[in-house]
Each structure stands twice: as C-alpha cells, then as structure tokens.
C-alpha cells in the first residue's frame, strides 16, 4: 500500500507530464500549421512578385525584352526553388529555366521535402505579365507545392521543436521537485494526525498537534484532533469521577444499613421500629439515587421521548408553586409567581420536573424568611422561566460546575442536605432536549437566578 506522500508525488508528476505533453503537442501542431500557412502564402506572394518584376524589363517602344535582366531574375528565382518560363504575346519562349540546368534544383528540393516527411509535388501556375496595365507576355511559375522549405527554414522548425522538448523535460524535472515538496507538506500533517489519533485511541489524551500547517483544511483537521483529545480526556475524567461519586453515594447508605443490621443481628441493638425505619429510609435513598441515575442515563443517551403539547408555562409554574408551598411555609419563605401566560410546545411532565427541581433547590438554599419568585416572560420567539431567590448564592468558582453529575455546592457531601447532585444535570438535559438553554446568575449570600429559555418553534 502506497503512502499518501508517494501517491501525491506521482499524481502531481503525472498531471504535470500530461499537461506539458498536451501543451507541447498542441504548440507543435499549431506552430507547424501556422508556419506552413505562412510559407504557403509567402510562396504565392513570391510568385506574384517575380512576375511583377518581369513586367519592368519589357521595352514597350521596341516591343522587346531585356534578356540579361530576365536571365538574372530567372536564375535567382530558380535558386529559390521557382522554375520560370517566360513567353511573349505570340506565345513564343523568351526565357526557359529548363535550358539552364534547373533539374538539379528541383531534385534537391524534392529530396529535402521527402526526407523531412513532407509530401507534395511540383505545381505550375501561369500569370500574365503586365506593364502599365497592358499585357506584354505571360509566365509560368513551377514550384514544389503546396509549399517547400529551405534548409534554414527546416532548421528553424527543428529549433522550435527542440525548445518545446527541452521545456517539457525541464517542466517534468521541476514538477518532480514541486510534487515531492507539496506531497511532503500535505502528507506530513496527515501522517502526524494519524499518529496522534492512534495514540489517542491507545489512551494518551494529553498529546496535541502543535504545528501550524499554513493550510486551512489541514489546520481544521489538526484542530479537530486536538478537540477530540480534549473531549476524550474530559470524558475519561468524568467517567472516573462518576465512578468515584457513585461508589461514595452507595457506600454511605450501605455502610449505615449494614452496621445497623449487624448490630441488631448480634443483639447489640434492639430491633426497634425507629432503627428499622432508619434502615428503611436509607434503602429509599438508595432507590432514589438509582432512579435518578437511570433517568439521567435515559435522557443523555437520547432515549428520552418527549410527548409535546401546547402548554401555558404560567399555569405549570402555578401548579408547581402550589405543590411546594407547604415546604416554603415551613421556612417562612415568600413564594410568588408573576408574569403572563406563555404558550409553547413542550412535554408538560418534563417541564414540571424542571421547575420542581429548580424551585426545590431555591427552597433548600434560601434562609428562613427569604423570598422566592417564579417569573414567566413571553416573546415572539422564546418562552422564558426565571426562578429567583434570596438564598445563600453560588460561588464564582462553582458556577461552571453546577450542571455536572454529583456536583454539590456545599463542601460537605451530606446527602440529606445536598441531595445526590444530579438534579441540575437532569434539568439541563431536559431543557436541551427541548432545544432550549438554561443559565444561572448568582451573588453569594444575596441572590441566585436560574433562567430557562425555550424556543417556540
């Protein structure tokens, strides 16, 4: 199996070779075609130019030709590859290149064109020779058609082809270096990321991708791997903490139950109704803890099924407040519900549970004679529940942690006063299941306000 670096290098090299080869082929075709068209046009123009020169060497007064000049023009034309035959108005020969050994010129041109692979044959065109607009004779011009090239012109074509070939070779060499460089630049972060992912899979959550690749997509990949490592490390810490917290929560009541029963079995204690009731209370607390954990697991695993209906949050809040009023009265707390009706599509039972948990905490942590207020606010997009109290508040250090499992605000782990520390975790999970958010503002020994924001759509 080839590495990504090798595959990228080969891919870039192949792409460059194909591109250079394609461009070279097209360039060769178009240059040759353009040059051929140019030479063909030049041949036609040269024939017309020769005939035009011939007209200047006719004496219209004596109706004779300047033979010496015709001979010079004819010989020059023959050496250029143009075989001339000049006729007067009566059609009689004035000058004929065949009388001056033109065959070796024609054979040389034919051999050169055949050697170069350019097919063709000699063609003859006849032109009128004119002077001052009057015909004074005619000339036939024979040349290798549709075009022919001299040695210098063939050398020019070869030079162009050589240049294109050299450019192709240089481009291929350059593409190898560029391909290797780019492949290394791209492959290194990918390979490093794969190594980091492997180490993360083996349990090393502290490893990070530190280097900046200067490539947005690769930086995003590195950031994702780093985020994954952070998330897995946090999850591992939560798992360990959850295990320790569950063990602690179970150990305390089990130890109490075990010691009480052992004392009664050994006859050290009498099995009085009060002691049996204490054991029963501890069992109930265990049952409550297991129930809370099961409920939290169900919510966080996405197995929570919401039975949504259009409900008035003000009415739900009033019901919860009425149910909690007896507890509030025991501590002489002023409990009130304010605001206006706000209708939203929610699971009534779950929202009732949210308000109950928050209100229960407010009652629990508000000193005797304090105030608790439930406020319902309505807007076009959101329904908002605020539960305010004048209780002991939450420290700034504790605020980011209060929604985590088994976290309790007070330093002691007294379950009778602080609960299991799952209530706010359940509140947060239920609100998120509704697509909402829950936030908290608090000042120690002054006030605390939990805000639940639920979207209407």
Describe this structure in words.
With 457 residues, this protein is α+β, with helices and mostly antiparallel strands. The protein folds into three domains: 163 residues, 2-Layer Sandwich (Beta-Lactamase); 84 residues, Signal transduction histidine kinase, dimerisation/phosphotransfer (DHp) domain (Helix Hairpins, Orthogonal Bundle), CATH 1.10.287; 151 residues, Histidine kinase-like ATPase, C-terminal domain (Heat Shock Protein 90). It has ten helices and 13 strands. The chain has a five-stranded mixed sheet with strand order 8-10-11-13-12. It has a four-stranded antiparallel sheet with strand order 4-3-6-5. The chain has a two-stranded antiparallel sheet with strand order 1-2. Strand 12 and strand 13 form a beta hairpin. The protein is rod-shaped, with a radius of gyration of 51 Å. About 2% of the residues have low confidence.
Helices and strands in order, then pairings?
Layout: H1 4-55, E1 58-59, E2 64-65, H2 67-79, E3 83-87, E4 93-96, H3 103-115, E5 121-131, E6 134-145, H4 151-201, H5 216-265, H6 273-300, E7 308-312, H7 313-330, E8 334-339, E9 343-347, H8 348-365, E10 371-378, E11 382-389, H9 415-418, H10 423-433, E12 437-443, E13 447-455
Parallel strand pairs: 8-10
Antiparallel strand pairs: 1-2, 3-4, 3-6, 5-6, 7-9, 10-11, 11-13, 12-13
Helix pairs in contact: 1-4, 4-5, 5-6, 6-10, 7-8, 8-10
């Amino acid at each position: 199996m080839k590495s990504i670096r090798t595959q990228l290098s080969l891919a870039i090299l192949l792409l460059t070779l194909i591109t250079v080869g394609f461009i070279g082929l097209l360039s060769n075709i178009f240059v040759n075609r353009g040059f051929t068209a140019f030479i063909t046009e030049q041949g036609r123009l040269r024939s017309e130019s020769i005939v035009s020169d011939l007209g200047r060497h006719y004496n219209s007064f004596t109706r004779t030709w300047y033979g010496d000049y015709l001979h010079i023009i004819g010989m020059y034309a023959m050496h250029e590859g143009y075989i001339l035959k000049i006729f007067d108005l009566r059609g009689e020969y004035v000058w004929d290149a065949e009388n001056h050994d033109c065959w070796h010129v024609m054979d040389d041109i034919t051999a050169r064109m055949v050697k170069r692979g350019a097919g063709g044959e000699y063609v003859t065109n006849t032109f009128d020779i004119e002077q001052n607009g009057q015909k004074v004779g005619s000339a036939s011009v024979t040349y290798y058609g549709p075009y022919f090239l001299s040695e210098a012109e063939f050398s020019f074509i070869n030079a162009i082809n050589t240049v294109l070939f050299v450019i192709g070779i240089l481009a291929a060499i350059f593409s190898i270096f560029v391909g290797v460089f780019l492949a290394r630049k791209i492959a290194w972060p990918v390979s490093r990321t794969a190594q980091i992912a492997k180490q993360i899979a083996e349990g090393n959550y502290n490893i990070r991708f530190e280097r900046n690749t200067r490539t947005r997509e690769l930086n995003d990949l590195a950031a994702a791997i780093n985020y994954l490592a952070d998330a897995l490390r946090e999850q591992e810490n939560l798992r360990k903490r959850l295990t320790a917290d569950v063990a602690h929560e179970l150990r305390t009541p089990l130890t109490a139950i075990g010691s009480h029963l052992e004392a009664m079995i050994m006859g050290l204690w009498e099995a009085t109704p009060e002691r049996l009731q204490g054991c029963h209370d501890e069992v109930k607390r265990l049952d409550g803890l297991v129930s809370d954990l099961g409920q939290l697991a169900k919510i966080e695993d996405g197995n929570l099924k919401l039975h949504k209906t259009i409900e008035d949050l003000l009415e739900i809040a009033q019901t919860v407040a009425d149910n909690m009023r007896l507890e509030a009265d025991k501590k002489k707390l002023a409990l009130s519900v304010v605001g206006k009706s706000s209708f939203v599509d929610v699971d009534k039972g779950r929202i009732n549970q949210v308000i109950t948990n928050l209100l229960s905490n407010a009652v629990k942590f508000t000193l005797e004679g304090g105030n608790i207020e439930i406020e319902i606010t309505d807007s076009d997009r959101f329904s908002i529940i605020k539960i305010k109290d004048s209780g002991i508040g939450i420290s700034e250090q504790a605020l980011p942690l209060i929604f985590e499992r088994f976290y309790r605000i007070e330093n002691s782990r007294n379950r009778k006063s602080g609960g299991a520390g799952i209530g706010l975790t359940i509140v947060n999970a239920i609100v998120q299941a509704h697509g909402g958010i829950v936030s908290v503002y608090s000042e120690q020994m002054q006030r605390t306000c939990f805000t639940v924001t639920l979207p209407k759509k």
